[in-house]
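User: Thanks for the earlier help. One more: GST C-terminal domain-containing protein. Can you show the sequence and predicted structure together?

Assistant: Of course, both are below.
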Amino acid sequence: MSFASTDVRIWLDIFSVYPTAFGVPAGLSPATVAEMRSVAETPVRQMLSALDDRTRGGFVVGEALTIADFLTFSYVTLAELVAFDIGAWPSMAAWLQRMKALPAYGSTYAAFQGLLSARTQRIAG
């Protein structure tokens, strides 16, 4: 699987994150969503392994921050929405922390952090 594949967003967002975070879409049965997750599992893990390999150099395409890091970050942070454990990919986890340490992270992702907080409170409550 090519890391640059446009299928990554489909596998990660539609098949994995959205049904878990926002519930079963209208017209789909829970069994269909379970099947979608099953189909998505291998490609998502392959994508995360490719990203882990790529971020060993510091960032997605080497030692310098590029637009590729910002685009990839927007996808990978969705894993937090469903409490997906990225511990199996330590280079990617370290890269994620480097991205979050950038000065604009707090203001740029404030709404997303609010969504995470609200979802966590709803699940706990």
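User: Great, one quick takeaway?

Assistant: The chain has a mean pLDDT of 79.
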